[in-house]
Amino acid sequence: MVHPTALISAEATIDPTAEIGAYVIIEGAVKIGAHCQIAPHAQIIGDTSIGDDTSIGRGAVIGDYPQDVSFDKLTNSGVRIGKSNVIREQVTIHRGSKEGSYTTLGDGNFLMVGAHLGHDVIIGNKNILANAVLIAGHVSIGHHTFIGGGAVFHQFLRIGDYCVIQGNGSFSKDIPHFCAAQRINRVTGLNVVGLKRQGFTTEERNEMKSLFDLIFRSGRNLSQAIASARLKPWSKQAEHFLQFLEAPSKKGVCQVRLDRSDDE
Fold it and tell me: Which CATH number characterizes residue 207's domain?
């Protein structure tokens, strides 16, 4: 199951059911789980673990140094990848930037060609990142979110659950749970189609629409809108949305905007 041209460190731990392709380089104390498939010319480096049933595409590089000018190469950090992920050609995933830190990818994600995860990124489960999506360091992404090709994200922001984000967008602020986002730091509404496909009931979707309008279309600023929303009880999903807004990153939260000139 290991091609004779592969270069594998004696420190590595590889499940006997894994398939290692031609010219693969596995350097350091890498751990590869059952039934993984590592395609030719991929490189997996350092304190990196890869969960069962994950496939790594041709030329992918996982676990290399972060792109951080202050990084000390003696730092002990790594990458943690869960189960049943598809990581396609030329994807790059860099290791954590601080002692004992990890870049983390959950289960069942699909990273398409050329996607990049910077150092200390944390991604949940069942997300799709299309071609050439660029995620800078310390970004967190929830679950069941779709990001279109070529979208770029500044460091330290948060992306919620069940979001849909347009390709070629540029974001430096948080994108709340359940939202659709596009262009530059712009939320356009709820991810209504995605919520329906994921089994949210009509009542749940209608409640989310009501809360969304209160937060983003009532003419109040964000803290005023949240205070107003807190005057009534909400369902579990709506509460999830509110809690995200109550704990934004230092970047702030994307807003609803209608005028394209606002992007400049």
Answer: 1.20.1180.10
